[in-house]
From TrEMBL:
GO molecular function, one term: GTPase activity
Gene name, Swiss-Prot/TrEMBL: MTG1
Domain of life (superkingdom): Eukaryota
CP-type G domain residues: 36-210
Pfam family, one: MMR_HSR1
Name the record gives this protein: Mitochondrial GTPase 1
Taxonomic source organism: Oryctolagus cuniculus (Rabbit)
Database matches in InterPro entries: G_CP_dom (IPR030378), GTP-bd (IPR006073), GTP-bd_ortho_bundle_sf (IPR023179), GTPase_MTG1 (IPR016478), P-loop_NTPase (IPR027417)
Length: 335
């Protein structure tokens, strides 16, 4: 996965404007050991697995896929859970379901919110049905079901497991949850989530595709918190976010930050946000008579606040894959 400056210039003619720089960083370096190791362990655990639940962020139902899963885990019955539905604009829900089926052959899709447990009760019956209608290699004699939960980082895999336990066992957390990607670092031992049928889940570390297919996809993943922010750059992400919100006519940020109107310029927006939130910083400036301290808007802090407001849903629900649903493929990155 590489999001380089050259790749960015490749999107000049694409859906979003040119001129954004991704710090020239090789984001591929953030494929830490635990991901490679995790994927290997997931493959070796497959013999004891009856079904795979793939979890994606509902805001990126198409670009949030990791093609490696299809190859590595593809032979098992597959349920797709589109989580964080509370943050997603699902006006085009039918189109999403249709494209998942036509493009990836995914016929079993459930939208969930693991914070409120919405629709989570549909998961175990769907899993039971899938396993019931499949051949359980090596495991035909076992009465319990073993299900692997897979997905890219930070989509809510652990939250789903905890939510299932709340729903079916009235029990609390069994696995750690966190707002940053990379909280789960190894395939866990079996966690019981239901009594009847007897279902155990394996939590797994979030695994990213080794190569992100386009810069725009990388930015979408970053906005959804699946890449560490500092690898992409918060101001770059804020720039893409502002562009997307304006393009989708999601203008909640205007009211949220008490602005006079919409804003096309990210620098201008971040300056207004910084001033409004009192986020300034002192920098030393060299003058003819020596150093003086100058107070400047803290753009980085303002960008962080903007991203945080978006991620917590305060700017309204969004469908970041709207372009793909409408048939506009992203420009490819260099290999
Ligand atoms: N709004 C919203 N937030 C959610 C939902 N599900 C999970 N979250 C939040 O998303 C963040 C990531 O959740 P986790 O369950 O740790 O995600 P994970 O996929 O296990 O993460 P990794 O361990 O990084 O692979 C946490 O801050 C959760 O509280 C949801 O349905 N809606």
């Amino acid at each position: 996965m590489r999001l380089s400056a050259r790749a960015l210039s490749g999107v000049t003619g694409a859906a979003w404007r040119a001129g954004v720089a991704l710090r020239g960083q090789d984001v591929a370096r953030w494929f830490p050991g635990h991901m490679a190791k995790g994927l290997k362990k997931m493959q070796s655990s497959l013999t004891r697995v009856d079904c795979v639940i793939e979890v994606r962020d509902a805001r990126i139902p198409l670009s949030g896929r990791n093609p490696v899963f299809q190859e590595a885990l593809g032979l098992k019955p597959h349920l797709l859970v589109l989580n964080k539905m509370d943050l997603a604009d699902l006006t085009e829900r039918q189109k999403i379901v249709q494209q998942l089926e036509e493009g990836e052959g995914l016929r079993n899709v459930i939208f969930t919110n693991c914070m409120t447990d919405e629709n989570v009760r549909q998961v175990i019956p769907a899993v039971s049905q899938l396993i019931g209608s499949s051949h359980r290699y090596h495991r035909g004699e076992n009465v319990d079901y073993c299900v692997m939960v897979a997905g890219i980082p930070n989509v809510g895999k652990s939250s789903l497991i905890n939510s299932l336990r709340r729903q079916h066992l009235r029990k609390g957390k069994a696995t750690r949850v966190g707002g940053e990607p990379g909280i789960t670092r190894a395939v866990t031992s079996r966690i019981q989530v239901s009594e009847r049928p007897l279902v155990f889940l394996l939590d797994t570390p979030g695994v990213l595709a080794p190569r992100i297919e386009s810069v725009e996809t990388g930015l979408k993943l970053a906005l959804c918190g699946t890449l560490l922010d500092h690898l992409v750059g918060e101001e770059t992400m804020a720039d893409y976010l502002l562009h997307t919100l304006n393009e989708h006519r999601l203008l909640g940020y205007v009211q949220h930050y008490g602005l006079g109107g919409t804003c096309q310029d990210t620098g201008h927006l971040l300056k207004s946000v910084a001033v409004r939130l009192g986020k300034t910083r002192k920098v030393k400036a060299l003058t003819g008579t020596g150093d003086v301290n100058v107070v400047q808007p803290n753009y980085a802090a303002a960008a962080r606040d903007f991203l945080q407001a978006f991620r917590s849903g305060q700017l309204g629900p969004v469908m970041l894959d709207r372009d793909l649903l409408r048939g506009h493929p992203p420009a490819e990155t260099e290999p």
